[in-house]
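Shipment paperwork, digital attachment
Item: protein structure file
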Amino acid sequence: MSTRPLLLALCCCSIASAADFAAWTHRQTVRVTQPGLTRLELETALLDASRTTGGAPFHDLRIINPAGVETPYIIALPRVIRPEQLQAAAFKATLNPTATVLEFQPPTNETISEVTLFTGASDFIKAASLEASNDGTTWQTLANGEVLCRKDNSTRLSIPFPPAPWTHFRVTVDDSRGARVVFTRAEVRRELPELRTVPQPVTIRSRKEEAGATRLTLDLGSANILLGTLWLRTPEPVFQRDTALLSMRSRLFRLQHEGRSIEDIDIAAHQLATTREIELVVKNGDSPPLRIDSIEATRHPVPVVFQADAAGEWQLFIGNAQASEPRYDIAGLSDKLRDANANSVTASAVGANSTFRKTATAPEVGELGAAIDVSAWSFQRPVQFKEAGVIELELEPEILARAANDLHDVRVVRDGRQIPFLAIKPGVEREIDLSFAEVRDEKKPSQSQWDITMPFPNFPANELLLDSPTPLFMRTLSVTEQHDTEQGHFERILGTANWQRKPGQTTQTFHLPLYTAPRAGTIQITTDNGDNAPLQITSVRAVHPVVRLLFRVPDTAPVFICYGNRRATHTRYDLQLVRREFETATKVSATLGDEEKLPGYEAARDGSIGKSSPWLWAALALVVGALLWVVAKMLPKQPAN
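Attachment content:
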């Protein structure tokens, strides 16, 4: 096709002026040898650096010409359209003594790559051959010794072949070794232009067996890969499994018939994998887990097309989560530019942008917050970081234990003023090993109890992980803690759960959720064994959620985090208005220094604040006395005798 009209249209498009690219993390140099319409396939390293969060894929890409001017472009993503199944015309079945001959035609003159037969029969395996013709007289064999079957919930009634514009088809089904099968109709698959793919390495990073399913974590080596097809490599001779990958659901199977293997072990994904690691779920049902030796995959290249107005070194910038989606005039020409003739160019390796600054990725938030007097707080710790920008601080469990459950008493402070912050719960959890000891009670011989030592009181655990070598059991476990207060002794239930294991089941860690976090330094797990041998537990771990704070600083002057003041009011920061911008900004990691006690700690210890304060008891006594006086006044007076 001629590209002259396209070139004129591109030349008339307006282009943006050069911008400050300090917010972009990566860059690549492209050498253009001659002006004109130019095409470049983006490398996986460049795709991996993209940080788009919604909108069109890779919209943080910017192309800059040698004069420093931003140039419009299109991302020519392949148009993934599923092949269309068409009802075959003129379907006719002829019965021979040892075969059934099926003849049919495509409804239109199309390129066909597969025929599919339909039948209501079940539990059969048939050998078949496929022939094709362009005149209905001269036939060419496309497939011989193919197997058609419906057995054990596995169905194969399709015969694929190299795409070609055939006008007549003939399928001969061998009936010499079994009962005849009645086929009622046929469909043909209209082939679309083949999408180009290249091999994509895949590593099985982890494998987790669950009840009825295998979960495989696959490492693609890069994020933002436009996956093509995946193949499972397994030595299992016969199997059938349903799988889930991204949003695709597929059924894979393999059968053996008369020394011939029939299989369908590919997953046609044709989707963008936005993360480097993806999960493949293989549903085993009641069958043993499927052995999977390796996985092979392909990906679709991602080309970019732009009008090069000059030869020389061009720059590609990518990796900015804050970048807005560009609105280029040439977007309306995408369909024409996708397949237009264009010059190819060479590119250097993708590297870090030397002008990148983390501070450029976050919005301006103005001055520090309101003034604060931290004398009522109990603890503070210095926040340590090496550069300005959006600081990301993960709160240690000790801080979560000393702070209020909703963190309303946490403050980030500099020079007597608050630094507004956001509390983020990214959904990440940490594990910690716990020491434990089994306790025997002679008065309760059927009961097993374990005393679990927490790292410290108020540890923010939300789950316990238990391991046991016992092969067969069914128990109800209870997690409790003991409290001794001035009001007396009481027991608090933290969680209960049923745990069972049958012979042959894979030994798996048991997840015991907690209703509420423990307060005590020691908690108990108890269960009644009935008339069975005692349950054995070999390890106990606690799981706690990760909480991070995000705040911005203009320099590296000292910053402190204060906590431990249950009377503190809840914070109301305007930072919530730019929450998304803060979450997507490039972060500066921070750590914490040693804990220091503030005046509020001594006040809590001497009882001037807190639940055990004598002033509190005096106030309660006064209130009770006043209430008794009011009640006495309201009672009717007894008549005199």
